[in-house]
Specification:
about 525 residues; binds protoporphyrin IX containing FE; iron ion binding; about 50% helix; Cytochrome p450; oxidoreductase activity; oxidoreductase; oxidoreductase activity, acting on paired donors, with incorporation or reduction of molecular oxygen
């Protein structure tokens, strides 16, 4: 997933502040005092120069820290982060005002040094400004790249990749614990890159470590982002230099992939023509452009920005969801057993799991929904930018304010959720609440115009591997660890993955020699 917002570590903060305080101080002295709006949302007291940066330091990940601050200062809270004005909303009704009432007004994203570099100057779906270009990309994603029909067309790719994953896990049976987290991240990247870029593997494999390092770095803190008017900070930013280096490497691999698709000169491509079965998302994109069907023609950089977007947004989020679902089941043996009983009841007549009867797995679907409530992979969604002054809960939101929606806090609001801090999949069994952006108390995929366009693809990539894990294996924790001892701490970042990798001991309960595979 592309970056949105991240807090500084104390050491980083102190070092960077010492280095640049003179620049900033002189800059601020020269600046005319701006008039501050009269009715800003409440927030913690702001220090000169750094504003509220000191309030954000600490061991808690951002969504928890913001929830803690909101409990004191209000569900619509203003923070000053260096030069940046930010508002955090933490109730369903405030989220609805951002993502429904003022949806168009807040349908752009704030830019950072990293988004500029990694998204080819804001040309990705996630980070392009609201306007004709973004609308076109969004239409292509909804109707072509990520439509239900397209997602179904990847069924055999998914089944094959899941079987390989299960075989990988089975190869550890009787040996040391399996690092399931690591396996899940490689599996999801492999699956999404196969669907996006096609079969050739060695080139894609060179991309993975670069994208991983790039998104990891980009999720970090760069002082140039919080003092955008101090241009010299951009010049001296070490993060910028590292990101540019990674971007150049990724760019040349993507160029190679796209070049391989095109026949020399002439403009004809090796992309399949209308009517032929589509193989991958790159093919779809190139063909649409080739056919002259697009109002705004896509440059090669535009295509590369979309590819990076899908590869990053599409893989980590699904891996995190499976990782947390497995962790919660391992912590709750009753839930694990109930889920296994269901999958085995539905698939025992076949002797293997495929997508034919996946919709019969009602309890598993509830587990996934509860996982997305309890551990939303993108806990503060992606930030939005206020384009024109507006009001939320009666407070003034000035133009250019960064708006963050704390979906994690909302998903656990006890006013809307009974036993909000308990993992209880049963709550979704007969519930009409869904994640499609209409119920603002449950927004793991966001809502409004900028909500996630990859829900169907993401869910398909989560359901099948989980069903296979439950069908074929029994699971326990290594070194005699008791289920209640499993550490559930989250890592800080734009995405909230497990802090420690999940290590597990699998035991085969249904053989993996599947009849539909030769
Ligand atoms: C469990 C899986 C996933 C989760 C939890 C998730 C979550 C999210 C969230 C919270 C957002 C921000 C929404 C907002 O700002 O309101 C988002 C945006 C986005 N997601 Fe996902 N996502 C998932 C899977 C995917 C997949 C599989 C893809 C594509 C292959 C994808 C592509 C995108 C894109 C392109 C955006 C940016 C949309 C825009 O700005 O217009 N996501 N996702």
């Amino acid at each position: 997933m592309d970056l949105g917002f991240q807090f500084p570590s104390p050491a980083n903060l102190l070092l960077l502040l010492c280095l640049f305080i003179i620049f900033i101080f002189s800059k601020l002295l020269l600046m005319k005092k701006k008039s501050t709006p009269g009715n800003l949302p409440p927030g913690p007291w702001k220090l000169p120069l750094i504003g509220n940066m000191h309030n954000l330091i600490g061991p808690l990940p951002p969504h928890r820290k913001l929830q803690e601050l909101s409990a004191t200062f209000g569900a619509v809270m203003h923070l000053q982060i260096g030069e940046l004005s930010a508002v955090v909303v933490s109730t369903p009704s405030a989220a609805k005002q951002v993502m429904k009432t003022h949806d168009i007004n807040s349908a752009s994203r704030p830019h950072t040094v990293a988004t500029e570099i990694f998204t080819y100057g804001g040309a990705s779906i996630s980070f392009s400004d609201y306007g004709d270009y973004w609308r076109q990309l969004r239409k292509i994603s909804t109707l072509e790249l990520l439509s239900n029909k397209r997602v179904s067309s990847f069924r055999s790719i998914r089944e094959e990749a899941c079987l390989e994953l299960a075989r990988g896990v089975a190869s550890h049976v009787g040996g040391p614990a399996v690092n399931l987290t690591e396996k899940l991240f490689s599996f999801e990247y492999g699956l999404v890159s196969r669907a996006t870029l096609g079969k050739k593997t060695e080139v894609k494999e060179r991309l993975l470590p670069i994208l991983r390092e790039g998104t990891g770095l980009a999720a970090g803190f760069d002082i140039a982002d919080v003092y955008p008017s101090v241009k010299v900070l951009q010049m001296v930013s070490g993060m910028r230099r590292r990101l540019v280096k990674l971007h150049v490497e990724a760019d040349s691999i993507l160029d190679e992939i796209i070049r391989d698709r095109k026949v020399d000169g002439g403009g004809t491509t090796a992309v399949k023509k209308e009517g032929e079965e589509e193989d991958d998302l790159l093919g779809v994109l190139l063909r649409m452009d080739d056919d002259g069907r697009l109002e705004i023609p896509l440059t090669t950089d535009n295509v590369k920005a979309v590819l990076v977007d899908i590869l990053t947004a599409g893989s980590e989020t699904s891996a995190i969801t499976i990782d947390w679902a497995m962790s919660e089941m391992l912590r709750n043996p009753r839930i694990l057993k109930k889920a296994q009983d269901e999958v085995r009841r539905v698939f025992d007549d076949k002797g293997y799991v495929d997508e034919s009867k996946i919709n019969e797995l009602k309890y598993l679907k509830s587990i996934i929904k509860e996982t997305l409530r309890f551990h939303p992979p993108v806990p503060i969604l992606l930030p939005r930018k206020c384009m024109r002054k507006c009001e939320i809960d009666g407070y003034e939101i000035p133009v250019d304010t960064k708006i963050m929606v704390n979906a994690w806090a909302i998903n656990r609001d006890p006013k809307y959720w009974e036993d909000a801090d308990c993992f209880r999949p049963e709550r979704f069994l007969d519930s009409l609440v869904d994640y499609k952006g209409n119920h603002f108390e449950y927004i793991p995929f966001g809502a409004g115009r900028r909500m996630c366009p990859g829900i169907s693809f993401g869910m398909a990539n989560v359901e099948l591997p989980l069903a296979m894990f439950l069908y074929h294996f029994d699971w326990s924790l290594p070194d005699g660890m008791k289920h209640q001892e499993l550490d559930m701490t989250e890592r800080s970042g734009v995405t909230a993955r497990r802090n420690d990798d999940l290590l597990v001991i699998p035991v085969i309960k249904r053989p993996l020699a599947l009849p539909h595979v030769t």
